[in-house]
Amino acid sequence: MLDLLRSFSGAPAKGLQYLALPSVTLLLYPSVDTIVILNAADLQLVQALAFWEVFPGAQHSTESIGFLAVDPAMKLIVASMGSRVAAWSLSGFQTSTWRVHSSLTLSDGQAVTALNCRSGLLALGSNSTLSVYTLILENDLPTWSNKWTCDVTTPSRVRFSPSLMYIATSSQQDNIVRIYLTTSGRQTQTIPHPRPLANITWRHAQASSRDDLILYTITTDTTLRIFFPVLDSPQHVQLHASLDLFSSLPPSVISKSHGENLNSSVFWLDREVIGDALGNILKDIPNTDDAKTRRVSDIKEEGWDLFLRVLSDGSIVVRAVANIDRRPPTLLKQFTLLQSLPSTFPRVPSHLYVIPNPGKRNLTLVTSPPLATLSLEPLNFFDARSDGLILRAQGTDRALEEESRILGFVRTPEGQGLGVVRECGGEAWFARERGSKLVRAGHWPTADLAVVLDGGRYFATYSKTNGILTLHSTIPQILAIPPISSLFSLPPSSAGPHECIFGITSNPTPSILHMHAVQYPGPTLELKSQTRLPLSEPALFIVPVDPMAWSGAGIGPEHDVLLSVARGGELMFWVQDDGEGRGWRLTGRVRTGRTGISRVRCSSAKKSVLVVPGAEGEELTIWDSKESEFASGLEYRKILSAHDPVNDLDWSSTPDNQSILAVGFERHVEILCQQRMTYFDEGPGWGVIHNIDIGSIMPHPISDSIWLSHGSLLIGSGHQMCLFGQPRPTETEEPPEGLFEHVARLNGPLVDYHPQMILQCLLWGKLELVKEIIVNLFKDLTRLREAGGGKIEWTTVPLDHFLRKDQMDSEKGQHRRQYTSLFASADQNDEPDEEGFSRALVEGMLENLEEDPLPHLTPNEHAHLLVLIQATLEVDESRRALDANGLRYLISMRSFFILNQRTSAPNSPRSKGEVPRKTGWRARLRFRDMLWAFHSESQGLLLSSSSAACQGKMLWSDARALGVFIWLNSYDSMKAHMEVIARNEYMAGEARDPVACSLFYFALGKHKLVHGLWRQAAWHKEQAVMLKFLSNDFSQARWRTAALKNAYALLSKRRFEYAAAFFLLGGSLKDAVNVCIRQLDDFQLAVALARLVEGTDDGPILQEILNNTVIPLSFRKGNRWLGSWAFWLLHRRDLAVRILVTPLQDIASSLDVPITDIGSPHYDDPSLALLFSQLKSKTLQTAKGTSEISGRVEFNFVLQIARVFTRMGCHVLALDLVRSWSFDRPSTAMPDFSQLEAPAGVRRVFPLEPAMRRRSSIMIDMDVSTAPPTRRASPERDASESAVLPPIKETPKEENDLFARKAGLGSLMKSAKQDVQVPEFDMSSFF
Known about the structure:
It comes from Artomyces pyxidatus. This is WD repeat-containing protein. The chain is of the alpha+beta class. Helix 24 (1083-1094) runs antiparallel to helix 25 (1100-1117), helix 25 packs antiparallel against helix 26 and helix 27 packs parallel to helix 30 (1180-1187). The longest helix is centred in the middle third of the chain and has 20 residues, at 767-786.
C-alpha cells in the first residue's frame, strides 16, 4: 500500500564501504552522527545506525562520524567519532539487523584520524600514533585489546595487506607511503611519491599462495602506480608500472586539449570480482567464437588487471595490465581495452567500486558523487556497447543543509512543493513522477517560519528577530509585518498570477494577515488585508482547512479555509467574505465539549481531528462538520497509550474527496481512513489501514510527517527523510493496490453485487432490481470462467433502474412465465428462461461462488452474498402471498438462519468453540427485523415460514431469536404457538423431561397436562413428589401458597426457569416475569408470559414490563426500534413514530417514567426512514406524533439517512431517497362542516389531506377529547392582554411549521370521528 520509495539520508562526504552478503550487497557511509546502510542494487535504505546508540552521551553532540571501516570476515562495522570507536555486528537471529557489538575509547584525548578492520584486527591512526588492537572475549563480552602502539606522522589512511602481515599508511603531511609489520609495528619500508596521495590499495596475489606485496597507489594527479617486490627482495616493493592520464588518451584527444589540465579519475576494477562474474558468463555460454565472448574469455584466462579512467567529458577508458603475477616483472605490458563515447557519466566521480552480485552474470558499479548505482553487463560493456552500463538509481547531490536536524515540513496546498525546516536553514523541493521523486529547488540560510509557493519553485521565509517576510524570488522582496505565530499558503480565491500567503498574529486577540506574492512578470510581495474573526473570545487555535482536495482545480465554489477552536472545544469554520474589508463569515460549528486540546487539524472534507491529553493517555477524536440533532459530529474516539504521545497530524484527500489521516508517533505513523458502515460488522467509524514503523531502520525519533501529492507520505527523522508511496509494480505481477484504491474499496461507492447493496435494495422493496443484479453477476462470472480468469469489466445496472419506484411491478427484466390463456395448464410454458432469474441460475451461481469467491470481498461479506442470493430466490418464490413488511422479515430471517448454519458447519470457527466477530454469527434477529413482522399483515405465513426454518421444531431459544412473541399480534396464534413450543421443549432430546415444558404449559393453564407428563417420567427422581403435588387443586389458596413456597425454594437453588413456572402455578404472574427479567435476563419471555396469561396487551403486568423494563432498556441501548414497539403496545403510537426521529432526550422528558440513562442516539440505520414513512400517517395517533415533528427536523432526518446511505457505500440509494421522499404537510384551515354541506360527489377535506390521499384508510385509535399531548403545552396569553391587543395575522415560517401542524391536528381528530359518507360497493362501477 505504502512502500519505502527512497530515502534522503545525506550524500557521502568521503568514500564508501561495501559488504557482500549471500543474498545482498550493502553500501555503507557515514552521515553526520549515523551510519547509512543501503542496498547496493537500488540504493534503498536498509538501516541507519546512530553513534549515540553505543555512546549515549553523543546524542546531542555536534560532532560527526569521521571514519568508517567494514570487516567482511567478522561482519563488523566500525566507526569513530573523535576519540571514541563503536562497533556493530550482524545479528545472528535476524540476518538483516545490526546490533551493538563493542566500543573503544582512546586515552589522552587522541582523536582517530584513520582506521581499518580485518578479521578481528583493528588498526587505528591518531594524531601521533598508530595502534593495532585484537578482538578478545572478556567475561563473554567482546573487548578490544591493544597489541602495540608506535609513534608515527599523523596517518590519514591505514590498509591491512591481504595476509594481514603488513600495514600500509599514508599521511596528509607528506607524500610517503609507510609499511609496517602487523606483528610488531616495526616499519619496514617507506615509498616516497612526487604528489600527495589520494588512495592506496592492496591487491590479492593470484598466481601463488605466498603473500606477494602488490600495492596500488593513486596520487592527486590521477596517476596510478603499481608496486610489487622482485625475486631477490620479497619483503620490499618497487615501482614497476604507472598509468597516468596521457598514457590513457589517444593522441587525437591530447592534441585537442592544447596542454590544458584534463580532469579525470582512475580506479582499479577488482580482479577477483570481475573474474567471478566472467566465470559465470563463460560457464553458461558454450560457444566462444564471437568477438564479445573471446574478449571476456581472454580477460578471464589471461588474468588481466583492469583500470577504469573517467574523463572530463564523461567518457571512460579501460586500460589492461597483463602479467602482474608473472616473474620477472619485465613481462608487464599495458594496453587500452576499450574507450566509450562521451557522457557515459554525467561528471567525474571521486569514488568508484565494482561490487559483486553473487550467482548473477552482471555486476554493480557504484560511483560517488553523486551517489549512483549502475548495472554492468560484462559482455556488452567490454564490447563498448551503450547498454553495457545502465543507471539503476541515483541519489541527490550533497548539500550542507541536509546535515542539520529536521524541525518540520510545510507544503504547497496541492502537495507538489515541499519545504523542509531545519535547525539551520532549510530547503525547498518539488515533487515529480506522481509524488515518487523529490528534486531540490533551493535553500535558505535561516528562518523561523517558511512557506513554499508555486509547486516548490520559490518560497518565502519569516524572521521573528526583525519581523521581515522575505520572498526568495529572482529579485528578493521583503515586507515588514506584525509578529506572527504561523504562516501558510492557500489556493487563491480569484484568478491571477498571485499566490496567497496567510499569517496569524501572535497577539492576545489574533488577527489574520492576507498577503499576495507574485513571481512573474516581476516579483512583488504586498499585504492585502489584516482582519479578525468575529469571535466572542480569543481562539485557542486558528488553523487552515487542508486544501489538498480542491487545490489546482481552478477557481470554483467557495471552500471553508480556516478552522478556529475555542477553549471550550467549539469548532467554527470560516470562509473569506467577498464584501468590503474582506472579513470572515461563519459557515458552521461543532460543539465537541473538549477542553485542553493540544493538537488540531482539519481535512478538505471538514473532518477535524483533536488530541486532548488525559490521565490515562491522549484522547484522539475525529469530528464531522455536519452537527445536527441527529448527529453529534463525533465519528471516532480512541484513548492512546500514555507512553507514546502524538507528535504530528496531517490530512490528505483522495480524488473523490475522502479523507486520509496520518498520526505520527515517536517511532511509527498510523494511517487512518473512514470505514464504510455495514449491517454485517459493528466496527468503529474510522480504522487504521496501514502502519509505517521506522523504528527498525531509523534510530532517531520522528520529527514530522507530511502528505504530498498522489498519496505519498514523507517522514522526517533526525536529519534524514524517508519517502513512502505507491508500491513499485514488478514485471511479472499486476500493479499492487495503491493507497487511494484501498481507501476507495473500504469507503467508496459499492459495486452492484456487493451484499450490502443487495440487502438495502431488498429492504427498500427493489426485488426486481436485485434479480437483475444477480442475473448480471451470473453472466459476468460465466464470461470470466470462459476467459480463463484475468480481469473483466463488471456489468452495472443503469442508474434509472435504481430510481424506479415500483420495482415489484416492473415489466422490464421480469422474465416471468407467459400464459396464452387465462386457464393455461400448469405444464404449459413453464420452462425456465435461460437468461432470467431462476432456481437453476441461482444454484449454479452459488456453486461457482463457493469454489471461486469474488475479489475484494471479505470472508464475511462473501458469506452474506451467498446468503442473500439464496434468500432472494426463496423470497421471490413466496412473495405473492406476503406484503412488503413480511418480505422484509422473511429476507432477514432467511439470512439469519442460512448464515448461522454456515458458520456452524463442521469446519467453521464457531464449531470449534470460537465465535469471532468476522464470522457474522448472531444469537438473534435484530429488533428492526422483528418490527417488520410486527407491522406485517401476513403474520400467519411468517409464523409458518419461521417454524419451517426451525425444521418444525421451534424451541423457546428459536422463538426468542426470531422475536416471535414480540411480533405476533393474535392472541389465539400466540396461545397455539406457545403450545407448540411447549411440546417441542418436551420432545427435545431423549429424556422427555417435564421440567423443560412446565413453564410454558403453566402459562397456558394446563397443569393437568403436565401432571400427565410426569406420570410417564418414571426415570425422574422428582416424579413421585411432582405427581403428588400436581394432583392438588390450585384454585384453592392453600395450594397456590404451597406453589409459591416451592418457587422461592427453587430460586435459592438457582433453578430460575422452574421457579418461574411455580410462580405461575401459584398465580403470581408478577413474580414469574420478575424472575425472567432479573435472573434469566430474558424480557422476551416475560412479555410472552404476560401476554398469554393476561390475554390482552392492556394488562397491568405487561404494561409494567414495557414501562419499567423495555422502554428504559431501549433508551439505554439507544434502540429506537425496541422503543417504537413498546410505545405501540402501550397505545402511545404518537411516541412510536416520534422516537424514530426525535432525539431521545426530548422523548424522555415527555414520559411519566423517569429515564436517566440514555445511550448513543443510533441514527445510522436507513430502515428508520422506511418505518417512519410507513407509520407517519397510519393511524390518528401516529398522525398526531408526526404533526409534532417539525418540517425542518424531518428534513434534517432525511438528510441524515441519506448521509448514512452514502457512508454505507449506497450512494445511488441516497439519491433515490432524497429524490422520492414526500414531505407531507398538514392543512391548517379547518372548514366548519356544521355550516357547510358538501355537494354531491365532493368529499370533505380536512387536515393531513396529503397523507390521507396516499392511504385508502386511516385507523382511528384515540379518543380526541382525552388524548394527552406528547409535548409540553405552550403558555397561554393573559385574558386582559388578549383583549387589548388586536389580532395579528402572521405568515408561518418554515422553521415554525410545528405550530402549523399542531393547529390543524385537533380538528382532524374531531372530523375523523364524524360520520363519513362512504358509497356502497357497486360491481357495476367496474363495467
